[in-house]
């Protein structure tokens, strides 16, 4: 329970450093220049500086806020840390942040559908950028197929995704019916 609180607080605080980044960079619909991208990658350090002395913010929460944009292979920011240097809570939070970023509209692109966002996360895990164990935990709670999705099966029956199927990510729990049969 405490770990979840720490992760949640870190997630809530992680972008507070964006207040120190120029608004025109954050809302730009054009591709950013290298220097502009570097300015944005400074925001976790700004965040850490802003929260480091706040009473009631745990070390775990601070690490989430500071390291959420790191990647397991060292390709993230602000410090290009490798997996063994990234706090375990940040490894969990980076997946949630990636999912939210992908499923949200951005000035330079439209939001991904949840299925494609999860597919991207799976690719990131297989390439070593995201923690595989944390991705597995994520998939146990967030279905690869959006909840409520209506689909047609190969045999013509229609179904609806009702929940994720832990450990069987490509086989969600579904409710199936035959729309041509009056008794169903």
What would you say this structure looks like, in words?
The protein is mostly helical. The protein has helices at 2-13, 23-26, 34-40, 43-51, 59-67, 88-102, 114-126, 132-141; strands spanning 150-152, 158-163, 173-177. It has a three-stranded antiparallel sheet with strand order 1-2-3, with no helix packed on it. Strand 1 (150-152) and strand 2 form a beta hairpin. Helix 1 packs across helix 5 (59-67), helix 1 (2-13) packs across helix 6 and helix 4 (43-51) packs antiparallel against helix 5 (59-67).
C-alpha end-to-end distance? 43 Å
**Could you list the spans in which at least 5 consecutive residues all have pLDDT below 50?**
none
Mean residue pLDDT: 91
Using the CA coordinates, give the radius of gyration.
Answer: 20 Å
- What is the number of helices? 8
Structural class: mainly alpha
Major β-sheet, in short?
3 strands, antiparallel
- Sketch the topology as an H/E string, one letter per element: HHHHHHHHEEE
């Amino acid at each position: 329970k405490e770990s979840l609180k720490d992760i949640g607080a870190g997630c809530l605080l992680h972008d507070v450093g964006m207040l120190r980044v120029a608004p025109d960079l954050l809302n730009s619909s054009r591709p950013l220049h290298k220097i502009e991208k570097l300015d944005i990658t400074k925001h976790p350090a700004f965040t850490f500086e802003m929260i480091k002395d706040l009473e009631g913010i745990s070390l775990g929460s601070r690490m989430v806020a500071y390291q959420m944009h790191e990647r397991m292979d060292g390709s993230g920011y602000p410090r290009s840390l490798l997996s063994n240097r990234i706090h375990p809570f940040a490894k969990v939070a980076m997946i949630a942040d990636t999912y939210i970023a992908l499923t949200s509209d951005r000035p330079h692109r439209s939001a991904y559908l949840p299925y494609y966002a999860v597919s991207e996360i799976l690719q990131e895990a297989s390439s070593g950028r995201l923690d595989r164990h944390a991705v597995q935990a994520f998939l146990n709670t967030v279905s690869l197929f959006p909840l409520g999705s209506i689909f047609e099966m190969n045999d013509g029956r229609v179904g609806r995704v009702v929940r994720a199927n832990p450990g069987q990510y490509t086989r969600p729990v579904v409710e199936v019916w035959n729309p041509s049969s009056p008794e169903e």
